[in-house]
Specification:
The chain is an all-alpha fold and about 55 residues long. The protein has one domain. About 80% of the residues lie in helices and about 0% in strands. α1 packs antiparallel against α2. It starts with 7 loop residues before the first helix and ends with a helix.
Length: about 55
Amino acid sequence: MSDKKLTTADYLTRGILIGGSFGVIGGWLFLDFRRGLFLGMLCGALAGLTYAARRKR
């Protein structure tokens, strides 16, 4: 990992991208594609914010 200090926006962006990716895979396999993408991005955003808050402590 680089030496750059990561901000909350960085964690949020990373969470949205990873969550959206998992949501698309879930959309292909189980759910409606749009629903899977939306839920994955939503959960990823929440996970990113949680991770950023934990890293600040």
